[in-house]
Amino acid sequence: xxxxxxxxxxxxxxxxxxxxxxxxxxxxxxxxxxxxxxxxxxxxxxxxxxxxxxxxxxxxxxxxxxxxxxxxxxxxxxxxxxxxxxxxxxxxxxxxxxxxxxxxxxxxxxxxxxxxxxxxxxxxxxxxxxxxxxxxxxxxxxxxxxxxxxxxxxxxxxxxxxxxxxxxxxxxxxxxxxxxxxxxxxxxxxxxxxxxxxxxxxxxxxxxxxxxxxxxxxxxxxxxxxxxxxxxxxxxxxxxxxxxxxxxxxxxxxxxxxxxxxxxxxxxxxxxxxxxxxxxxxxxxxxxxxxxxxxxxxxxxxxxxxxxxxxxxxxxxxxxxxxxxxxxxxxxxxxxxxxxxxxxxxxxxxxxxxxxxxxxxxxxxxxxxxxxxxxxxxxxxxxxxxxxxxxxxxxxxxxxxxxxxxxxxxxxxxxxxxxxxxxxxxxxxxxxxxxxxxxxxxxxxxxxxxxxxxxxxxxxxxxxxxxxxxxxxxxxxxxxxxxxxxxxxxxxxxxxxxxxxxxxxxxxxxx
Amino acid sequence: xxxxxxxxxxxxxxxxxxxxxxxxxxxxxxxxxxxxxxxxxxxxxxxxxxxxxxxxxxxxxxxxxxxxxxxxxxxxxxxxxxxxxxxxxxxxxxxxxxxx
Amino acid sequence: xxxxxxxxxxxxxxxxxxxxxxxxxxxxxxxxxxxxxxxxxxxxxxxxxxxxxxxxxxxxxxxxxxxxxxxxxxxxxxxxxxxxxxxxxxxxxxxxxxxxxxxxxxxxxxxxxxxxxxxxxxxxxxxxxxxxxxxxxxxxxxxxxxxxxxxxxxxxxxxxxxxxxxxxxxxxxxxxxxxxxxxxxxxxxxxxxxxxxxxxxxxxxxxxxxxxxxxxxxxxxxxxxxxxxxxxxxxxxxxxxxxxxxxxxxxxxxxxxxxxxxxxxxxxxxxxxxxxxxxxxxxxxxxxxxxxxxxxxxxxxxxxxxxxxxxxxxxxxxxxxxxxxxxxxxxxxxxxxxxxxxxxxxxxxxxxxxxxxxxxxxxxxxxxxxxxxxxxxxxxxxxxxxxxxxxxxxxxxxxxxxxxxxxxxxxxxxxxxxxxxxxxxxxxxxxxxxxxxxxxxxxxxxxxxxxxxxxxxxxxxxxxxxxxxxxxxxxxxxxxxxxxxxxxxxxxxxxxxxxx
Lengths: 511, 100, 500
What we know:
The structure holds three protein chains of three kinds. By secondary structure, chain B is an all-alpha fold. Chain B contains three helices and no strands. In chain B, helix 1 runs antiparallel to helix 2 and helix 2 runs antiparallel to helix 3. Chain C is mainly alpha-helical. Chain C has 21 helices and two strands. Chain C has a two-stranded antiparallel ribbon. In chain C, a hairpin with a 2-residue loop joins strand 1 and strand 2 (71-76). The chains are: A mainly alpha, B mainly alpha, C mainly alpha. At the A-C interface, helix 15, helix 16, helix 17 and helix 19 of A face strand 1, helix 5 and helix 6 of C.
């Protein structure tokens, strides 16, 4: 690990947002927003430069303060981290721009709202730190930073429903982190290391490893609202202000998925069993159906979108069983793994863009109507055509119709399903698409329907509508660099070592 | 039974008590205390792995981790307490039963 | 895929750019919008003519873009695709003119024309797709771009129809998706025309291939309105006339029929499909749909609904022709793709003219309409003769070849189906013609006059006359070089080269 080229970017990616966040605390509300927006733009710019650096130099590392592991902290930016950091930067900067306009346009400015900026930048620092972490404990710290800032953001309005939802969210998050940390302590106890790469090499199958795999996976599933731990997500995401909802469902839940993906693919290779994969896949499948169904029967826009997140996160869990073949089964083709994790990553990115767009549109609708009951969406097309278009485009990506990012994700997922011979997941994917089509087109149908009574749509800033539309378009545009992106991810060999051990774990090490 | 095994066992028991408390307790404060107990179990588990026999020196890493972990856990608990207090001030509620 | 050409991409761009620009215009910028629309339509026809000429000289026009491993966006020009692309683009030009006249003064015209352009992009995209994935992409894009057209009126009826339309098409799309992914997992990225791939797998993996064939067929049959998946078509008649015309004659239903043609001829190959016994169920279903559609049409009083059920029936001629192996029946199927399009669009234009000018939507109101709208009803009558299969109108050619093909293949029951269907066609179309020309109009109705000097606005009249002339010409000059028949014949002959 140490021989990799060193670069200051990993440290800057964590340090800069923390610096700007702290700086903004010294300003009055107006100044907070200015510093915050500046911080977002700088961080996003830095992230893109760092992304380019990784594409050119390959994986880079940074050892904080020159203190080497195990006591010091090593940050590692490989292609997977770079992709997640890049996604966070692009989605994050759009949400920041939106938030700037959104909070200015609010008629009643609650005193807590300007705190959005420092909290968001702390959250961003946590996310970047999470993606860059190379050891299990650092992952814990960053996910706690994320959790605390996310909960604080969710209760920003100080309204009662948000407080209840926030407390529930926080308790779930603490439970998840503690379960995760308990597993980490067991792993440390049995191996004496926390380094991801090293753990992947020295870990031996056994009851301790299996148990820590179980508690870590459960803990992370609580944090990413995987079924049956999804209960905290809809209230928390729907009661927050629009930019916050967008951040929470586009970015925050993806952090836990990132850890889970890394651990399953790089660390736990030896102790993964077919049954474990099937179980987590089952949880994902239920989440897809249940979440979509719940979304279909909601009557408020934000609740629909929040339940849809539960379903869309279910697709992420369905990636895991595809990584492990049934005992005794060998795949027809050598590259059967690649579609599965590509599907996961595309699902993450496409969902981030589409869901952010959805929540930002929801914010505009609330701004225009004062509420978000869906029967009032009638004749949205006539009144807010850009928002309606954004909802339509983002919705198409969620359903997974071509040529959207969501389509790419479903395509790869189905391919992975067929290649691994686990055809029983296919109906779930399709059913999920149909249910998603159900609620997306329910919204669009209302948007096209004639107004029953005079709906008074207050005018909303057009610039905000355009930001939501751009995010929606983003969920389509991400398809175009897909080929190079997949090659980029494969090139650095992030999954190389992990894949081999998974193959062994799946096919032979099944006991 | 070795000393570290006693610690390990205790940590597991504390962890389970914590989990049980989070799910079964209704009052906010009880739930928050349960998370703290859960955290206590986890930290004890780390410490128990620091020295497994009498010959080798104690491993400093778990101590460093636990100190960091405690700081994080305190912050989380503080935020939870603040939320619970605010909810009580606004609504007088102390449980999730009537949340809307 | 060595040489790439941007020509096929330009063909798509010629309608997608106007579509997006129109969406950004303001509602009152009528002149600019019309200019964009028409210049796009004309440019598309010109580009396709250019490509057609080049193709005939032996040039290749392929465009290729790799999206992901095994997932390439490919546009390829071949004769079948060009035939369909020409049909789409020419009828789009005509329908655009018609729509400008029909919707004059209506609401939300910006939205209408924008999605109209996107819709034709999708249908030319389907025509020029080089592989199954690209086909699927445009197939779904077509669903999405037609939805706003179906609900265009914004009434509760329209919104409800849109819902039915979506459930059918999204459901069908899902089945097709599953089939396409399965096919690619088994056979790799399949380009149209590479039938040898499936041929080599047919003995290895017959069960999966059969299953996938029927999955994809079911997905395509939704848009091709084959029984029992036809339910969306009559319902979506609430859309404005130009939409019905385009949906029923060209874009949507033809996408389904064209997909079936591609699936059988260019993916599985007619020989393999016959060997694997895939065609018999298709033939039976198509024959049943032909009779069923005609019977349902018989009992409709709503003018457009009768036309809709007639479409259900007529479309299955294509599927039937595909399902009977043989050069003659293949020729019949391919040529009917074009003939049904121009005849049916004539009928919808005529129905639209009557509704727009006099507000008549029921067949029982049409007494004596021929005297007041001689050109419209004259065009309609030509189309009716074509549908029934009277020479020399285009429809006769299709039926003649289908009948010959059936005789050649020894499927005499198909000839019986064709005869029954022709009789039924006559039974539900001729009364309209009779009423229009020979019944005395009601006293009140006879006093109504159009407001213009012509029987209706020129923009409504020209398209219907033009397409009627097309229908007639396609029949009269069927043997001329460059006629739809001679092109279809060439395509069909190439399909059976493997037999030689």
